[in-house]
C-alpha cells in the first residue's frame, strides 16, 4: 500500500479521495489546462502525500485537517473545470 493509499484511508475513505485524485490527474494530463493550474494541482498532491508539512501528520487530527483544508481549497478553486473530468469514468 502506498503512502497516498494509507493516508487517504485514514482521512475519510479511499474510494472518495481516489475518485477526486483521478479527476485531478486527468485534468493535469489535459493539454488545454494551463501550466499555472497544473502547478497548483501538483502542489496540492505533493502537500497531501508528504509526511512533513505545516502541521505534521503525526499530530493526527490537526495534521490531517491541514491536508484536507488545502485539498478542499484547490478542489474548490478548480471545481468548475474538474466537474468535466469527474464524470469521465
A few lines on this structure:
The chain contains four helices and no strands. It has 89 residues and is mostly helical. It is globular.
Distance between the termini: 23 Å
Count the strands? 0
CA-based shape: globular
The helix content, as a percent range, equals over 70%
Mean pLDDT: 75
Give the C-alpha Rg: 13 Å
Strand content: under 5%
Number of domains: 1
Task: Kindly report the oligomeric state of this protein.
Answer: single chain
Please write the string of helix (H) and strand (E) elements: HHHH
Structural class: mainly alpha
Largest sheet: none
**Uncertain runs:** none
Helix count from the secondary structure assignment: 4
Summarize the topology.
Elements: H1 3-12, H2 14-29, H3 35-49, H4 60-86
Structural commentary:
By secondary structure, the chain is mainly α. The longest helix has 27 residues. It has 4 helices and no strands. The model has no long low-confidence stretch (mean pLDDT 75). The radius of gyration is 13 Å and the shape is globular. The protein has one domain. Helix 2 packs antiparallel against helix 3, helix 2 packs across helix 4 and helix 3 packs antiparallel against helix 4. It is a multi-pass membrane protein. Pfam families: DUF1232. Its main location: membrane. It is found in: Endomembrane system.
Amino acid at each position: 500500500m502506498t503512502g497516498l493509499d494509507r493516508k487517504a484511508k485514514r482521512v475519510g475513505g479511499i474510494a472518495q479521495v481516489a475518485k477526486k485524485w483521478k479527476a485531478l490527474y486527468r485534468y493535469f494530463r489535459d493539454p488545454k489546462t494551463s501550466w499555472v493550474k497544473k502547478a497548483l494541482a501538483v502542489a496540492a498532491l505533493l502537500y497531501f502525500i508528504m509526511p512533513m508539512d505545516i502541521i505534521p501528520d503525526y499530530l493526527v487530527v490537526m495534521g490531517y485537517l491541514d491536508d484536507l483544508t488545502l485539498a478542499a481549497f484547490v478542489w474548490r478553486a478548480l471545481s468548475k473545470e474538474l466537474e468535466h473530468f469527474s464524470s469521465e469514468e
